[in-house]
Structure prediction request, 194 residues.
Amino acid sequence: MSGHKIVLLGDTMVGKTTLIQQITQGSVQLDQYPTIAATEVKKFYKFENTQYKLSFWDTAGQERFRSLTPLYFGNVSLFLILFDVTYQQYSTFESCTSWIDTVRTSCHGAKIILIGNKLDLKAQRVISSDQARLFANGKQIWYVECSAQVGTGVIKLMDKICEYINKPFPPINHYTEESTEVVHKKRKEKQCCF
Ligand SMILES: Nc1nc2c(ncn2[C@@H]2O[C@H](COP(=O)(O)OP(=O)(O)O)[C@@H](O)[C@H]2O)c(=O)[nH]1
Ligand SMILES: [Mg+2]
Prediction:
């Protein structure tokens, strides 16, 4: 069973470290590289009868300066780019464009999942699902939402990660052809649910 390297990126405070903790709760932190300021946390996860060995790479604050070493970009199976669906001092959603550019410049044909985090802060939410999905469509990447703190959507995210790792590039994006509103309307017309 070969391992898969998954690198988390996104502005500081969006919830990268919290998400890794939520994903790996109860599992042992096997490797740490404090001197190079990257942390690798391993997690075994079963999806569709296959056991996946995933290693999540967290930044240790240097994302603040956009000064990530090539260490992060070598031999990566998947990048997770996070933003905060609420607005703090600035829009972490807007920063995603440059995070995606950074990834694509460093790794040609990289697989990326965009993640809208802090779903639990409903009242403070400023980036809607449709807005994020439309953006992801334009960039030809998948979009998933979660609350790293509460755990909402995290299992779904893990399934997506395993599914995507096995798929050839580019992904089949459910939202590429039509906006979600159109899809919803069609589903209503067909009287089916999902
Ligand atoms: N309400 C809420 N807070 C979160 C969530 N995820 C992270 N946080 C908080 O956001 C802050 C930054 O999280 P952290 O994981 O350190 O972000 P990082 O800088 O991207 O690693 C911390 O105070 C977390 O407790 C979430 O899903 N919901
Ligand atoms: Mg962190």
